Amino acid sequence: MTLHVLPNRLAGAAENMAIDFLLLQRYPDAGTPRFRAYGWHRPAFTFGYSQKIALVRSQVPPTDVRIELCRRFTGGGLVDHREDWTYALALPRGHALEEARAIEAYRAVHDALAVGLRLSGQPAELQPACATDEEREVRETTGVCFTRAECFDVIHPETGAKIAGAAQKRSKHGLILQGSIWRPAAPGVRDWESFEHALIEALGEALQATPDETPWPDFNEDEVTQLTERYASAEWTDQR
Predict the structure, then answer these.
(1) pLDDT digits 0-9 by tens, 177-234
(2) Contact 105, 91 (CB under 8 A)
(3) pLDDT 10s digits, 132-173
(4) Measured between alpha carbons, how far is residue 205 from residues 2, 37, 158, 199 in Å?
(5) Are 84 and 181 in contact (CB under 8 A)?
(6) Nearest to 219 by CA among 18, 5, 38
(7) pLDDT by residue (tens digit) across 7-44?
(8) What is d(CA 12, CA 67) in angstroms, rounded to the nearest whole number?
(9) Integer angstrom CA distances of residue 159 from 8, 116, 156, 163, 183
(10) What are the structural domains, with CATH classification, of the chain?
(11) 49, 18 in Cβ contact below 8 A?
């Protein structure tokens, strides 16, 4: 099996969400795992599909008019993308990790992240315990990722500080993880390109797939535009 590694791209928040959606739903080689790392044209925050917009807005800096705010189609909390390293990994229907429980896929991908971080000079391990009732209450109140580490998040082994987390979405086409590494929490990584290479190799082992640099897929441009407009709309952002 091959792991398609797509070229890195910069885009606005809504376009990034549109592309991730198509990565799961419309990928031309539907039976192949695919990975992409990407960046942001402007300062951006994304937040989980089920979150309340009033709570989200209370957590976003109100004075920075440049910030893009976008609701994801995945779950999870509010993520600050101003200093993060962002990726998406889509697993096709029928892949062993896609068929496993979501928490097991989460663990396997974060194991690979931790390996890549350690090889790049950053101590990292997985949070071994799931959230307590108190921690769940804090998370539900704040709605902010990286406030507390959850089960199998990547953390610093000495301080317990959260380094990486992810949100997931399952459909009839497979499973996607939208993940984020908070760069300030990983000061040991001096070369993020080398980290990406180490991560891809570790992901290949976890997925039992050979990484292969693959040209950008031929998505329908009209659909990309329509989805981008949808994710940028007030109707989508403010729906809850």
Answers:
(1) 999 999 999 999 999 999 999 999 999 999 999 999 999 999 999 999 999 999 999 9
(2) yes
(3) 445 544 454 455 555 567 899 999 999 999 999 999 999 999
(4) 11, 18, 27, 10
(5) yes
(6) 18
(7) 999 999 999 999 999 999 999 999 999 999 999 999 99
(8) 10
(9) 31, 19, 6, 11, 16
(10) 2-237 (3.30.930.10)
(11) no
Are 116 and 161 in contact, with CB atoms under 8 Å apart? no
Average pLDDT over residues 101-108: 93
**What letter does residue 185 receive in the DSSP assignment?**
G
Q: CB under 8 Å to 236, separation ≥6 — which residues?
A: 71, 230
Q: Return the amino acid letter for 217.
A: P
The pLDDT of residue 144: 58
Helix-then-strand count for the chain, H and E: 8, 12
E strand residue ranges, 62-205: 68-71, 79-80, 84-92, 125-126, 154-155, 162-171, 174-182
Within 8 A by CB and 6+ apart from 77, the residues are 47, 48, 51, 139, 142, 143, 144, 145, 147
* 42-76 b/e (C-beta count within 10 Å ≥ 16 → b): ebbbbbbeebeeebbeebeeeeeeebbbbbbbbbb
pLDDT exceeds cutoff 60 at 2: yes
User: What is the full DSSP assignment across 134-168?
Assistant: HHHHHHHHH-BTTSS--TT-EE-TTT--EEEEEEE
User: Which CA distances in Å does 221 have to 5, 21, 103, 150?
Assistant: 21, 14, 34, 37
